[in-house]
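Support reply, case 0932

Customer input (verbatim):
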Amino acid sequence: MAKSKTILVTGAYGLIGKALCTALYRHGYTVRKLSRSHGDCKWDINSGYIDTNTLNGISCAVHLAGEPIDQRWTPDAKERIRKSRVKSTQMLVKEILRQRHSVDLICASGINYYGYDTLGPLTEQSAPGSGFLAEVCQEWERSAAGAGLTPKLIRTGVVLSKEGGALKKMLPPFKAGLGGPIGSGEQMMSWISLEDIVRVYIRAIEDDSLTGAINAVALHPVSNSNFTKALGKALKRPAILPLPAFMVNLLFGEMSRETILSDLNVMPEKLQQCGFEWKQPDLDSALRRNGFVY
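Our regenerated output:
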């Protein structure tokens, strides 16, 4: 029997979620959004409530919801980051197991699974790392695989988009000519365009042979120094003013060590093996395609 073309999406109002829902509609899918306040179905992570009809007629649940990482990591913020991912996944898994029909689960994760200061290149077979985000990603993935489920785990790199994420925050100083290498500039940055991460999710929905953890990054990681040069060139602005690591730590605290200053050289081995074709395989084409060239 053919599977339903109705897809459940959590985090549908975030950067990836909005773009994914648009693409799913374009591909002929029906989308049901699960949200705290705006969706077709409601849930509340703190109370553990979820609408009982959430998964009726659903063939696949794409779980993107989570507290933003880019904030100062107070103890309360760290608990919100962890709980929003782990508990929400546990709730969704419990609801999937309650269904009489099978529901595939595709769960977001991050390349922070591998830590933040690593010897590359890293593939899906590489060992988990250490650090707060690594621990969150590992617990997140364990929750998705609860009770015998075999989810697809999308370990996402830095998403390249003007609409949100890290790049949106970098644009103002770069447009003002105040951009430049961060820290040593030697740390590797594993990135992917917004268009390509959406295509990875659609491939995961449609391709049963693509299983387990999937590194969702472009083919060519770049150093922070080369990234800032490319961004400055695209914007026609100088990118020569360095931001020393100690200043980054003063501005952003612990969060900076595991995000802005992280050194992650991650390779998309599984995507290469399944023949996935990137629309923006290199940084210059991605900057042009995403409207960074002025």
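We compared this against your earlier run and they match. Two observations from our side: The mean pLDDT is 92. The first strand starts at residue 6 and ends at 10. Please reopen the case if you see a mismatch on your end.
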